[in-house]
Amino acid sequence: MGALAVQDLLAPPRLAAGQALEAEPVAAGEEELAAAERVTYRIRQRLRYTYDGPARGLTHRLVVLPPNRHGDQVSRYGELVISAPDATVAWERGPDGQRTATITLDEVPGLLDFDVTAVVDRGPAAGWPALPASALTGRRLLAPTPLTTPDESLTAVARRLAGPDPLTTARRCCAWVFENIAYRPGSTTVGTTAAQAAAGGAGVCQDQAHVMIALCRAAGLPARYVLGHLLGDGASHAWAEVVLPDGWAPPPPGPPARGQAGRGWAAPGGAGAVAVALDPCHNQLADRRYVTIAAGRDYQDVMPTSGWYCGSGRGALTTTQRVEVVELAGLPPRRLAS
Asked: What is the C-alpha separation between 304 and 260, in angstroms, rounded?
């Protein structure tokens, strides 16, 4: 059976991925990841749909390949292989840089695989994603969406957490979610709102990100939803990015850049604002174990897989994925114990 292999036509000319596609994974702890000047990751993911009856006229949307650049993360290689050779693919870029593939297929086979391979680097330049100063006041990341609209209870919490220091406010919102929204798989659905998750006191990483975004926006901080991966096996992860004025951001993960050590990190080029990633599921800044796939206003903007078709067949989805470190560059020499 043939397959269709496609690359994102919106991507810049690819850098040579070298041996990263076939390299053996590198064992890397948090200290090695933080100390390396550059870390190279390989992402492999399979989304498999099986249909128990006739299906046709498929239109499917995938958000699975990383953006060209996201702060210090740079895409080196990205490929989507579709097991149906008759599929057609169109690419679009969203307002936050996400890369969306829309697949159409007249006749849907009983087994349909989407295989994703990507290679990305983190470091040594940039740091947090830089945004224009208008992102601090624009309605797009400040206005609530259906999934992030706060109720009276969440609005009252946001008032208590808000303060003059935007970074402190963001950290308070992150900590409140960690302390009040228990991670409980199966307790919510993809349509659960932030207010519903907060009222139930439980959810998954998607819900925790939505609650944090709702709190931040209610406190006057622009925020966006991030879809991504953590190192290792497992499902996709979600966290939040809070837009802070340039100079308020904490130092980004990795070795400090020249002139950027200490608090008050500023984006190169004086962008005006930076998007600082916080993970309310673990109550921490997102470090180098995190790989970003897409950012948007909420889950609906960056839903990794979605679509529709005609026919009596019912589709079932199974996914597998793995994120590995395949290269660590610029590690300082180890100090031997005396």
From this structure: 34
